């Protein structure tokens, strides 16, 4: 039954993909509505870029496939500070995300334990959390640039901020939701605080903590693209913005596709880790 459902879902996905490609191909035809609905000012801008050698037409699926293959054949080339392969740009972005994400985990998980185990700490920190949590991570970027004076580290700081809250809140919730019977047994056996945290609370709260970590990695990957568009220099976000300045729509679509694939891979990795934790439970 499950295999039949998987097969049907796969066939439906292929049909949806084929319909999307067909609609895209139709929309790029000269007689389609896309060409006729272009803003006149943008059309003039594109025409001016075309006169200098840039592509003016929206790329077809075949064009994007050829562009993607060209990037995948040599993803790590370096032809100057502003001309580096998409593999290098993705590596810069992934590096920033991983560093900011791990720093956030190092802060959020212990603090979440403290909040979840101590009602006093929860009441004391809750006002600060409720004020800071809704702030867009990108709102911190100007302050980070002013104080840190390094665009790469500032981007890591933004990733740290956006990754912090889902892990902190989920960890606190998971710790606070541990069954009282288990805690009572630990108290009866006179288990120490550290042993209780690692042997009782952590295993019970691990699935909820992993859910927070999975949410955080998705947000972090989303935010890094926007952050790199702001600070420039390196990264897949900078690559997208630079290709927009060159009016290279094919490269932009290729980068968007790669961003989605990397984001899916990160999410699947965390989902797999969460299932392993749940299975051990």
TrEMBL record:
<keyword id="KW-0406">Ion transport</keyword>
<keyword id="KW-0812">Transmembrane</keyword>
<comment type="similarity">
    <text>Belongs to the binding-protein-dependent transport system permease family.</text>
</comment>
<feature type="transmembrane region" description="Helical">
    <location>
        <begin position="98"/>
        <end position="116"/>
    </location>
</feature>
<dbReference type="GO" id="GO:0005886">
    <property type="term" value="C:plasma membrane"/>
</dbReference>
<feature type="transmembrane region" description="Helical">
    <location>
        <begin position="7"/>
        <end position="27"/>
    </location>
</feature>
<dbReference type="GO" id="GO:0015112">
    <property type="term" value="F:nitrate transmembrane transporter activity"/>
</dbReference>
<dbReference type="InterPro" id="IPR035906">
    <property type="entry name" value="MetI-like_sf"/>
</dbReference>
<dbReference type="GO" id="GO:0006811">
    <property type="term" value="P:monoatomic ion transport"/>
</dbReference>
<keyword id="KW-0997">Cell inner membrane</keyword>
<protein>
    <submittedName>
        <fullName>Nitrate ABC transporter, permease protein</fullName>
    </submittedName>
</protein>
<dbReference type="GO" id="GO:0042918">
    <property type="term" value="P:alkanesulfonate transmembrane transport"/>
</dbReference>
<feature type="transmembrane region" description="Helical">
    <location>
        <begin position="154"/>
        <end position="176"/>
    </location>
</feature>
<keyword id="KW-0472">Membrane</keyword>
<comment type="function">
    <text>Probably part of an ABC transporter complex. Probably responsible for the translocation of the substrate across the membrane.</text>
</comment>
<feature type="transmembrane region" description="Helical">
    <location>
        <begin position="247"/>
        <end position="270"/>
    </location>
</feature>
<keyword id="KW-1003">Cell membrane</keyword>
<dbReference type="Pfam" id="PF00528">
    <property type="entry name" value="BPD_transp_1"/>
</dbReference>
<keyword id="KW-1133">Transmembrane helix</keyword>
<feature type="transmembrane region" description="Helical">
    <location>
        <begin position="219"/>
        <end position="241"/>
    </location>
</feature>
<dbReference type="InterPro" id="IPR005889">
    <property type="entry name" value="NtrB"/>
</dbReference>
<keyword id="KW-0813">Transport</keyword>
<feature type="domain" description="ABC transmembrane type-1">
    <location>
        <begin position="90"/>
        <end position="270"/>
    </location>
</feature>
<dbReference type="InterPro" id="IPR000515">
    <property type="entry name" value="MetI-like"/>
</dbReference>
